[in-house]
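Exercise 7.
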Amino acid sequence: AIKLLENKRKAILLGIIPLVILLFLMIAGNRLLNVWDMKIYKAPIALKEQTPHQLIVVTKKQNDIRLYLNRVIQFSSLDEHRYHETLVHPVLLSHSNPKRVLILGGGESLAAREVLKHKSIDRIDIIDLDPAIFSLAKNNPYFRKINQNAATDERVHLVNHDAFTFLGSNTEQYDIIISDLPDPNTEATAKLYTKQFFMLAKRSLAENGKFITQSGEIYFSNRAFSCVVNTMDEVFETVTPMHVYVPSFGDWGFVIGTKDTLAIDESKPLPSLKYLTHGAIQHLFQMPKDVTIAATKINSLDHPVILNYFLSDWQIWKQDLQGGGI
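Solution. The predicted structure, written as tokens, is:
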């Protein structure tokens, strides 16, 4: 009986030890993950959610709200106005009477906030793959304050869809199409900068419609930026690059494509903005002397060359910044 009791105690002890070790690893693991997250995001995490599409992280440090998707910053509330004002207002000022606007990406509704500042707007359709971003835009108090409740405006329609697939089946005509989609850092996102994608966008434009896409950092990722310009040049009659400095991002590029010429109507009054003036808009189109449009191949579904340009550009600069040389 004594031996059986000792064996029972040993069995219990042997069962408890792994549980204690597992519990320790869980606690230590969570602490390590928190330390790791702080090193990545450099600010307290207000929200963290893994959806079927991406990892969403929102940080808050004093009055700076930041959104990260798959650990890549999407905006900082301190300077996002520079990005979104540039993305929206010049292209809208180039249209005589924009009424219908399509926004591809931009589910957080910051671009829509800017579009709604134009009184002529009747309808905005926002296409985003992840419904969780729409939920943030409509329900999160930080996002609602930043987007000024644009996501719940009656003129705004949130559509959960893939941008490429949506354009492929779309039969509506839009005065303005704004592409605020992720950088071409994967095969899935590289297709959003292909000749075929731009052709679908052009097909969805009204007769005097205008298209604009964000196109990444113009200096460190110059070949990828150039590839967007060169690929759009195969599709649109007029292609015009521009850029703006955003402290959180760098010197950021955009490209406008039109079926006709591009002319900014300086007689049209600008809404109340934080950054842009008519004079500042003219400077957007003046590219720095040391940034040129490089010769590149055309990005297509069969040959997604922009992915290699993007990854290799950043790898070169990453090595250089770490002291590895070019």
